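Recall the central idea of this unit: under ordinary conditions, the amino acid sequence of a chain determines the structure it adopts. In this exercise we apply that idea directly, starting from the sequence alone.
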Amino acid sequence: MELEKCYRVLGVRSDAKLTDVKAAYRRLALEYHPDRNKTPGAEAKFTTIHEAYSIIMSSKGIVDGWRPPEAAEHVFDDGSRAELSFAILTGKEVVYHVSTEQFEAEVRRRFNPKSSSGTYCKIGARWFEVDDQTSSRKTLWGSAKRGALTEWYKGPDGTDKWKSVSWGDFWSYVRSYASTAGRSGQVT
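Accordingly, the structure predicted from this sequence is:
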């Protein structure tokens, strides 16, 4: 599929900001996801939407939703033994490298229920998004709440999937991630 056609599939201009492309993708993916839309042709439309989004992201140097740290617009290092990394994506991606001891505190400072809707955090192989669009977004368990948290992941078939998670589960994951990396001396 040609790049210009990909933008048309998502309904955005070719000079659209990355946040606009992602918002259009999320909206269309939720609308045509086979688990939510049983109309004929919805699954094919969902596949086309995903393919278009993947091509656009690849053209911007983002593969599977993750840019290598050298492609980030800004990198923060706390000056200590930088053992762990996490990324925050709002309009631009910022990669933070911090010590194991400071990891949870830095994540809490930069990603929390007060973060703007559409803010993403990547820790390890997991992506999380703050979502407070209560009127336009239904989660699997009902309406999303202000500061609700969604985890995006790849399903066994390679398609993007999402689920609502609690902030408590998120913080447990952050602590577990830091603890595991601290014990092994490497990021898992």
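Residues 69-184 form one domain.
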